[in-house]
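Give me the fold.
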Amino acid sequence: MRRVVFNQKGGVGKSSITCNLAAISAARGKRTLVVDLDPQGNSSHYLLGQPASELKNTVADLLEQTVGFSVFNRRPDEFVHGTAWENLYVLPASPELEFLERKLEAKHKIYKLREALKKLGEEFEEIYIDTAPSLNFYARSALIAAERCLIPFDCDDFSRQALYNILNEIRDLQEDHNPDLVVEGIIANQFQPRASLPKQLLRELMDEGLPVLPVRLSSSVKMKESHQSRQPLIHMAPKHPLTRQFEDLYRVLAGESVELEPLAE
């Protein structure tokens, strides 16, 4: 299974959702890989404890092979890093992704990520892809490489307008490049249950027939603490309400039965 967590809008929690779902997958005993395609490298730093600028053997090095700048062609698994947690691995980002992007585009290498991830899929049961907050070459590559797409939504009107654009872009990519890509759903993040506007927006999206997931991820300082300690919530605070929400989200995406509270009026 290859899942991309994507939104063109920044600050919606893509990296947090990617890493915490992957950590839950690994904790369940599944060999799990996070692919970080954001030059900022937030997912890489979160799970490996080092800034992306200090890492070697990155996804940039892997992709650079495809444009003929490397003497040796190495296997995709040679760029994978282990983490402190069993079954959880990272193909880390690099600031070099920004400089490499034009070269990859010029040589029409949009399918190379999919080829690499299919090979890695022989070793990993679940692959999670994090992208930068833009529909750039790497985001398109990820959407072409993925089988499923999860869209974080932070419950404001700007995010709503961006959501419509994202869904249109995904439809175009499905038609032209990846008909097997499934939009799993829209996940409300940093949700404030006592505020009326977030609930109103979610109800309106559901009335429009959009695939809003029944789990909502609350706003919590615990997530910031998790970032600071470089520990996914399942390891840092396994009994915290936000951790349980992530576990519910994982179960929903896995098609398991979950008892959830309906969206209050």
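Residues 2-253 form a domain with the Rossmann fold fold (CATH 3.40.50.300).
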